[in-house]
Amino acid sequence: MITGEHEFEAEYGLPQPLPRDERLLWQGGPDGRVLAIEALHWRKLAIYFAILLAWRAENVISGGGTVLQAAVASAWLLPLAVFAIGMALIVATLIRRTTVYTLTDRRVVMRIGIVLTMTLNLPHRQIDAAALRPGKDGHGDIALTLVQGVRIGYVHLWPHARPWQVRWPQPMLRAVPQASRVAALLSDALQATAIGAARASGANVTPLAQPVPAAIRPIAEPAARAA
């Protein structure tokens, strides 16, 4: 299920070319700006350091110091603030450039990792359910609940993991553009796989008159918004 680092891909985002009987449904990656805001919290970092700088300056002025003295006393924090915020933006950019999400009619493939690249190969039969958290401008996160017995370490997945689900980590497609459309494609593919498996087992399955994204549940809990 996990393929190690590779220098040359046989096909973009994939360790091997797709078999002839496997169909590519969608391929993309996270939006760097949305990822920086939601997963790396660069806006919260900026607000934190702004409050810290203001608090430091206010202490100096309330103690009888001048505005110039307050500015000098706060200046030592500026390099730290610039470094922290800059690193968040740089990491988000690197994640965007090195991440490829691939959805086929048989599996979900996640090529992730900045320094050590690895590929997660998740056949549909290993995905129990999926959940969508829609965001602004059509972006959103799609979390995958794996079947019992299939587990991937949270550290290996981050930031491509559903927040706070540490005991039973859930792979997550983060900051995906047109997330509703991608979720619908995934839902239809999961349903088709389930129907095919049921028919193969000899069960009597009546096809749906109109495909509906029943496999996709909304992520509503507030904890899912933190990373």
Task: Provide a compact summary of the structure.
The protein is α+β, with helices and mostly antiparallel strands and 227 residues long.
What does this structure look like?
By secondary structure, the chain is α+β, with helices and mostly antiparallel strands. The protein has two domains: 38-93; 123-225, no CATH class. 37% of the residues lie in helices and 21% in strands. The protein is built from six helices and nine strands. The strands form two sheets. It has a five-stranded antiparallel sheet with strand order 1-5-4-3-2. A four-stranded mixed sheet has the order 8-7-6-9. α1 (32-38) crosses α4, α2 packs across α3 (67-75) and α2 (42-62) runs antiparallel to α4. The two termini are 25 Å apart. Residues 207-215 and 220-227 have low confidence and may be disordered.
Outline the secondary-structure elements:
Elements (H helix, E strand, L loop, with lengths): L1 E2 L20 E5 L3 H7 L3 H21 L4 H9 L2 H21 L1 E5 L2 E6 L5 E6 L3 E8 L5 E7 L7 H4 L14 E5 L2 H22 L15 E3 L9
Parallel strand pairs: 6-9
Antiparallel strand pairs: 1-5, 2-3, 3-4, 4-5, 6-7, 7-8
Helix pairs in contact: 1-4, 2-3, 2-4
Head-to-tail CA distance between termini = 25 Å
Mean pLDDT, as a whole number? Answer: 83
Please indicate the count of domains: 2
Q: Profile the largest sheet.
A: 5 strands, antiparallel
Strand content: 15-25%
- The DSSP helix count reads 6
Helix content: 25-40%
Q: Helix/strand/pairing class, anyone?
A: alpha+beta
The protein's oligomeric status is single chain
Shape: elongated
Widest sheet: strand ordering: 1-5-4-3-2
What's the β-strand tally? Answer: 9
Provide the gyration radius in Å.
22 Å
- H/E element string? EEHHHHEEEEEHEHE
